[in-house]
Amino acid sequence: MKKIIITLDGFSSCGKSTLARQLAKELNYVFIDSGAMYRAITLYFIREHIDCNNTEQVKKALSEINLSFEYNPLSGQSDMYLNDENVELLIREMVVSERVSEVAALKEVREFGVAQQQQMGNKKGIVMDGRDIGTTVFPQAELKIFVTADPAVRVERRFKELYEKNPAITIEEVKRNLEMRDYVDSNREFSPLRQAADAIVLDNSDLTREEQLQVALGWAKERMEDRA
Predict the structure, then answer these.
(1) Of 130, 154, 158, 167, which has the maximum CB count within 10 A?
(2) Roughly how many angstroms between the first and final C-alpha of the chain, as a whole number?
């Protein structure tokens, strides 16, 4: 079957990355974690004390950033590398989560990220998740999925994920962080989060990971056969 581009967009903690990884593995496609890319940029900005309101500082910082994904045989997944440093664990910390929407909303950062993502997708056979993948990065993608879930379900999922790393975290902190990110992602000037007109909605509030994978796999195989 012909290789296609699959995009998954949606709010934070909807399980987009998990589903994207599963799809890529099942189809033997390349998984590109766009969120990890913006988190790595955010980590660099935090380390270098970059002022997001200073365009020249932002442009200079971006020129010094090299992002890449490298396969980790222990986890069976691709880790995010920032200037040849494995930052996969560091970019998942709350200090990055609290800043990533602000950094990712910058015009220069979006353009930098989109250009890199589009280059990665030249050969097709990829699965990419994010906020603007089906609308801005790959508007021509053969399959666009918009993943959603009940807000309370998303907060609970995110809390369980973070609690394992930081038992001091509270569910109220997680709720505030998700609400803030939802607002910023949906209202930013450049490439806001929105459902593409031709995207299929996947509400996984009451689905297991395996159930949502089977639904998405069915859609993917239909599109691949259509273009064979």
Answers:
(1) 130
(2) 5
